[in-house]
Structure formats: C-alpha cells, structure tokens
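Entry 14. Structure prediction run on the chain below.
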Amino acid sequence: MLPSGEITDVQIENGRFSKIGKCETTVIPESIEKIDCTNKALIPPFYNTHTHAGMTLLRGYADDMPLFEWLSEHIWPMEAKLNGEDIYLGTKLAIVEMLKSGTVFFNDMYWYVPHLVKAVEEFGIRAAIGCPVMDRNAEISLPMAAEFIAEYRNNPLIQITVAPHAVYTCSEKNLRACAELARKNDVFLHIHISETEQENADCIKATGLTPVQYLKKIGVLDCKVIAAHCIYANDEDVKTLAECGTVISHCPTSNRKLASGLFPMSIFRKYNCKVTLGTDGCSSNNNLDMREEAKIASLLAISQGGATAMPVKNMLQIATRAGAEAFGINAGEIAVGREADALIIDLRDERMVPLYNLASNWIYSAGHNCIESVLVKGEFVMKNRIVPHADEVIDEVRRRFNRANWC
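Output returned:
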C-alpha cells in the first residue's frame, strides 16, 4: 500500500523507484529480491534538517533551564571533556535511533567531523555534515572545512556544509569568511538564527539590526543557508528569508523545552518560506524521533492558527519531501524516478487500526514500533526492525557513559 492507500506493486532498480503498478508477470527471476508487503504501507521517510548527533551522549544531562545557562554552564563544559572516539560512538547511537524511528538523512553540526563521517559511512545513512565555526576555532575549522568539501564533493550520501554557530559566537569577519567558503563551493551554510529573545536583543544592541537583517547586510544570506529555529524573526525578517531562498529548520520540541519561544508558522507560510523540520540535539529534545516532532509541530501550529492551520498532509510533506529537496536529494516521495528512500510500516500495529487516513494515523497515532524496515537508495539499512550492530553500540554507550564516570 502506498501513502495514497493504493494497493499495488513497487519495483526498485539501481537505487530508484522504477515502476509503480501491477506487475505484468507472475514469473520473477530468482536474482531479484521480493518483499511481501501484505498489510504493510510503503511511505516516505524523514529528513531531519537540524541535529547535533553526538549530543546523544548528553541526553538528560542538563534539563529544565534556559538556553544560555544550559549552554555556558553545562553543555560547553561537558563537551570539552569529549574526544573524537566519544563523538564517533555518540553519533552511531544517534544513527541507530534515527533509523529505528524512520529518519534517513540528518543535517548535523558538531565537533570531530572525521569521526562523524566515519559513523555515517558505516550505517549507510544520508547526512550533511557541518564543520562548526566559532571565533575560538575559526583559524583551524575554516581550512578543515575546505578540505572536507573537496574530499566529499562527489559522495552519493554525504554532503559537507560550513557551520558557523551563531551571530553571538562568530565575529563579522568569520561569518563573512564562512559565507565566502560556502558560496565558492556551492554548499550550504548551516547556522542558528534568532533562537532566543536575548540573541535578538543583543544583536540589535550591537549592530542596530536583527540577526536576519545583520546576516543579510554582511552577505551571509546571499549563499545557500539552512537556518535553525528563527523563532524571533519578525515579518520583515521572514520576508527577507523567503526572498533569499533560505531554508528554515523548525525545531519545536527543543524550542519548547528550553522555553525559547514559539515558532511563528503562520508568518512563514504567509511568505512561502522553505520550512523543514529538525529535532535539534538529544540534550535539548531529548530524542531524535521525527514522527513525534511532526506531531508536536502540527499541534503548535494549530494552537496558534486554528484547527485548519496545518493539515496533516502538509506537515508530512514538511517532514519528508521538503527536507530532501532542500538538500538536493531527489527523494522524499514514493514516485517513479525518485531515489528509493522509504519506510515499510506495519498496518496491523494497534496504533494504525482502524485505517481511515494513513497520513493521520502515521503522524498523530503511530509510534516508531510501527516501522518494520527502512531503505536508503533501495538498500535496507534496517530490516525486520533490526539495525546491524545496534546492540553493540547501545551496550558500549551504557558501559562508558554514566553518572559515575562523567557527572
């Protein structure tokens, strides 16, 4: 069954959906793998457009506090204790969680880029890996970003991005340098924008402009930008972001948990902004479940704009195809010619019964246990609810990271 509810056959060749329709022959060569999807649905997977994957290691470490206290007094000091092997392990744990909850792509910003890339390659997931830039590390991180961009330019699953953290951690000089590097190489610049009221107030005090208008003035928004949060973007800011073609990563759970504010979805829809969905990191969410994120995003939009403000089919599109297309991935839809990224979900799961509306059941009712298998470019990265080596990763994190050792 497809997302439309149509019962049919789906053929995958060379990593793409090659045919959707009743198979014309009953004799299929033994060399072709056949999957019986009776009582199953084939649906698009999720594309998570803002993460800090290695932060799985900080899940539950510092809760119940506002962003700047959370960052400066808890998260940054703890991160200083982590090394590359730690981040490699934490990223593998994140990938296991993402695959089990139906995500096949994540746009990341975290330390130790070679270790992130290694984890991605081992699991066969898609990713955009950001080289983080702050004033304290710019002299090292900018040349490193250039090297990684060159090395992974033709990789079918991995993109490299330039990732200045925010206007309050990067000088104008370094922001301009990041934009120049991204523009020169035609890659994304990944940055937090207007996440808190304090960030906006501080930027206005220092520059006379909101973060959006400041970034526009210094040329950052003239390249391809993925902007996380954007909670305090006003009408003029949103109009600017739309005109610049900036992709927005809406992270509702993290925003609410850190009491940062409410994303003005109606304003972004008014100006036809490119809105996608992200989870943020596990220390501020505290999971990477995009289906849950989509449900929360829908409910917040409805609570602000009324019962018809966010039809479930629109939210499903934001969480799937919009994220894929934003990053130039020809996927996110079960359609001939698209790359064969997909989820096989179990329609006999109690949360999928009765089945009046597949999209509604999936976003509002389901849990990740409904997901039986996950495909990336036609290859199984989870099959029959098993992600290879997942238990080994979980056991190792449990052994090495606990309150006695780290807190």
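The longest strand covers residues 126-133.
Filed with the rest of this week's runs.
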